[in-house]
Amino acid sequence: MVDDHPHDAPLLAAEPLARRVAAGDAAAFQELMGALWEPCVGLVRRSGAMRSLSATDDDAREVVTRLMSKLERDSHHALRLYLDWAGRNPDKSFADWLRITVANVARDYARERAGTNVDRSAKAPSGKRLLNDFAQSLPLELGARPPMTDAQTARQLLEFARTRLPPAQLTALEAWLQGATHEGIAEQQALSSPEEAKRLIRAAVAVIRRHFGSSTDSEPT
């Protein structure tokens, strides 16, 4: 059989050890693991699943650790399955079987990592996303205040407001977000009526929503 894979030599050399372990020589497993470790690290690094993951050396070693655990589990059941597989595929080698096994372990690891990253992203959204979500929660009508659940987001929003809003609108918005009533804002700013305070807040909200919102958002009325 012609070897089309330049990295197969150490894998092929380890096959007699694998057969010994599969036949019941458990003590030979440590020697097999030593023979396979570095070649399998190379297989993992070259696998499509790990390249798509932009995997590190630590990721590669973790996959090989999982591979060795798989080979050792249940009294080396996987290696006994290799003997059956080899009997059904006489044109294939131990290196071919290892490539398939490594690919499966690497794929499962990559899926696990991808799922972890998605979970982290969902639990810890970016500051920009938080700021945008908060701006979108500002109501067009001023019957209720948005929930101030993220202090950094609130600070960022107000920092933006301070650079874009006229002083009267900014003061009214800050007071409203802190819990002041329209009547209290009107009194604080010496406005003619609570309705004037409401108009200032509505104008401030409109500026913020235009900046952070989508083009489909309605303008405040």
Q: What can be said about this structure in brief?
A:
With 221 residues, this protein is an all-alpha fold. 73% of the residues lie in helices and 0% in strands. The chain contains 11 helices and no strands.
Describe what you observe in this structure.
Helices cover 73% and strands 0% of the residues. It is mainly α and 221 residues long. The protein has two domains: 9-123, Rna Polymerase Sigma Factor, Chain: A, CATH 1.10.1740; 127-212, no CATH class. α7 (127-137) runs antiparallel to α11 (194-212) and α10 packs across α11 (194-212). The protein starts with 8 loop residues before the first helix and ends in a 9-residue tail after the last helix.
Our estimate of the beta-strand percent is: under 5%
Count of spatially separate domains:
2
| Number of DSSP helical runs | 11
- How far the N terminus sits from the C terminus, by CA atoms, comes to 79 Å
Strand segment count: 0
CATH architecture of the largest domain: Orthogonal Bundle
**Roughly what percent helix?**
over 70%
Average pLDDT: 78
Spatial shape:
rod-shaped
Order of helices and strands: HHHHHHHHHHH
* Oligomerization status of the protein chains: single chain
Gyration radius (Cα, Å) is: 32 Å
Main sheet overview: none
**CATH fold label of the largest domain:** Rna Polymerase Sigma Factor, Chain: A
Uncertain ranges: 118-131, 214-221
CATH class of the largest domain equals Mainly Alpha
Give the helix/strand class.
Answer: mainly alpha
